[in-house]
Amino acid sequence: MISRLKNKDGSAIITACVVVVCLLLLFTVISEYLRLQIIAKGVRDTVQSSVISLATQNYDEVYNGLREGYSGGYELDRNDRWKSKVDEGAVLSDISNVLGLRNGEKYAGSQLEYRITNLDINILNTPLAPSGNSKKFESEVWLNLQVPLSFGWDKLPPLKIRMKVNAGYTPKF
User: Fold this and answer.
1) What's the rounded Cα separation, in Å, for the pair 2 and 23?
2) Are strands 159-168 and 74-76 parallel, antiparallel or unpaired?
3) 134 φ, ψ to 5°?
4) CB distance 126 to 81 below 8 Å
């Protein structure tokens, strides 16, 4: 290879151009991969922060159960029956405020950067008076993240992933 580069006949120019184009293509693919990783991590971290906030917001609902030894959110109704009392919070508005989303979409200038759809919130309340302490109060958020690729001249499909983020409430004492 080095002898081909030292060759003064000019035949190494084509080989050098091919090597440079291959390196540029490889650099572009790596850059796109890192961009997708950064976007997915940023969205996941923001959703996780919002879910932790949601679990913390339910502290006042869970506290009564903690006194009895479990961490469920329940209240006694007028008929002396226990019913679940949990707050689903405002996860989407928290995420929109932090990420600067408009209708679940983030734009970089006029170009769509990513889209968040199908946000599902599932709060797993601890059963009333369980026999053990293996279950805890948890919140799950499922969402679809779609990121259009800036590589491949719009011929490649966008990245679509279904993300799950959960957080649990664990009493400190």
Assistant:
1) 18
2) unpaired
3) -75, -30
4) no
Query: For the whole model, what pTM was predicted?
Result: 0.72
Could you tell me which of 91, 88, 89, 163 has the C-alpha nearest to residue 124?
88
The confidence band for 115, taking pLDDT boundaries of 50, 70 and 90, is: very high
Give the Å distances, CA to CA, from 131 to 31, 51, 70: 52, 27, 10
User: E strand or H helix at 23, and its extent?
Assistant: helix 12-57
Report how far apart, in Å, the C-alpha atoms of 171 and of each of 109, 127, 150 are.
Answer: 44, 16, 45
Q: Each residue of 124-160: pLDDT tens digit?
A: 877 776 666 666 777 888 999 999 988 777 788 899 9
In terms of Cβ atoms closer than 10 Å to its own Cβ (0-12, 13-18, 19+), residue 142 is middle
The answer to whether the beta carbons of residues 27 and 19 sit under 8 Å apart is: no
